[in-house]
Amino acid sequence: MENFFNEIAELLEVDSVTGNEALNSFKCWDSLTILSIIAHADDNYGITLTAAEVNNAKTVNGLKDLFVAKKA
Amino acid sequence: MGTSDFNPLNLSGKKFFISGAASGIGRATCILLSKLDADLIMADINLKGLEETAKECKPTDIISVMDFSQSGIIKERLGGLVASFGKLNGCVHIAGKPYISPLKSLNEKTALEVFQINTMTALELSKAFANRSISAEEGGSIVYISSVYALVGSSANVGYSMSKSALHGITKSLAVELSPRKIRVNCIAPGFIKTKMGDNISHFFAEGHDEKIGQMHPLGLGEPEDVANAIAFLLSDLSKWITGSIMNVDGGFTAI
Questions:
Q1: What are the DSSP calls for B113-171, one per residue?
Q2: How far apart, in whole angstroms, are the C-alpha atoms of residue B163 and residue B150?
Q3: Which residues of B170-195 are buried (b: 16+ CB within 10 A; e: fewer)?
Q4: Domain of A59?
Q5: CB contact under 8 A, A39 and B155
Q6: pLDDT per residue of chain B (256 residues) written in tens, 0 to 9
Q7: CATH code for position A47
Q8: How far is CA B103 from the centre of its chain?
């Protein structure tokens, strides 16, 4: 998970993230970006996420927590 | 002669190879072809699923575990099977892998895996089948399964649609190239079918997506048997003057 913030920054189309940002504050936040996060989780971490779970994560840190919880 | 015994779809004495036989469209196809009295080699990576399919087919039909993500296995395996089973009259490539990903999360490794299973395996199977040591002297029929997403665009489907639209090019090229051998090559482009594969990717979408997809099909979502029926037609002599065609079996999806 050490590259998580870099990977998510790329999907969110920004140079970097700190973790505190609200997901819906990003310009690119839409259904396709949510799909990208679900596909990325599946491809790179072998975890299954739903669109509702990603939306409910609220922040980048929340998203990281979700990945960690699913991976456990 | 009466007409009561007339059945141009009778496939008695015909031998076919079916990939993806363990579930969904593959299983429905095997069951239908077996009922039409064809002899089958049924292949899939999933042994348990193959055994379930086999229970509903003729006891003489055989199963073979094959991992289509590995290239170069088909010719050798098929050669060994045909030696005892007899030469084939046709083959159907149904095994496939879905891939939902928008462009920005597209993973090259996954896209190539999908391409290997969905596309390169179709080519490899065709190459093996076209060899006179595998196919019957009188020729035969090859059927691929693509998708409506090889015909129309859809977000987050580029890796999958690429693999399926390539089958359309293969269909046209090989229909011409294999015509001197009397081998017909056709492709079915199904709409959305109620299968386990569809269930496996449902988590990608928000609530209400299934209903929305259903509304895109004037005749509603399809059943695996709807595609199996078209496959049986393309394997039978009823379609003996059809080659190089892409048949939409989609409940009207592409008619809208």
A1: HHHIIIIIHHHHHHHHHHSTTTB-TT-EEEEEE--GGGTS--TT-HHHHHHHHHHHHHH
A2: 8
A3: bbbebbeebeebebbbbbbbbbbbbb
A4: 4-71
A5: no
A6: 556 788 999 999 999 999 999 999 999 999 999 999 999 999 999 999 999 999 999 999 999 999 999 988 899 999 999 999 999 999 999 999 999 999 999 999 999 999 999 999 999 999 999 999 999 999 999 999 999 999 999 999 999 999 999 999 999 999 999 999 999 999 999 999 987 767 777 777 777 777 888 899 999 999 999 999 999 999 999 999 999 999 999 999 999 9
A7: 1.10.1200.10
A8: 27
Q: Helices A60-71 and A4-11 sit at what angle, rounded to 10 degrees? A: 120
Q: Count the neighbouring beta carbons within 10 Å of the beta carbon of residue B72.
A: 9
Q: Does B99 participate in catalysis according to the annotation?
A: no
Total-model pTM: 0.93
Q: What is the CA radius of gyration of chain B?
A: 18
Which of B99, B144, B149, B160 is flagged as catalytic? B160
Helices B158-177 & B121-130 angle (0-180, nearest 10): 20
Q: Across the interface, do B102 and A40 touch by the CB < 8 Å criterion? A: no
Confirm or reject contact between A40 and chain B (CB < 8 A): yes
Helical pair A4-11 and A31-40, crossing angle rounded to 10 deg: 150
| Separation in Å, CA of A20 to nearest CA in chain B | 22
Q: Is A7 in the B-facing interface, judged by CB distances under 8 Å?
A: no
pLDDT at position B2 is 58
Per the structure block, which two tokens stand in for B146? 């693509």
The residues, ordered by sequence, that sit 6+ positions from A11 with a Cβ below 8 Å of its Cβ are A33, A36, A37, A40, B104, B105
Pairwise CB contact (< 8 Å): B101 & A51: no
- The structural domain count of chain A equals 1
Torsion of CA A7, A13, A14, A20, to 10 degrees: -70
ipTM above 0.95, yes or no: no
CB contact under 8 A, B204 and A44: no
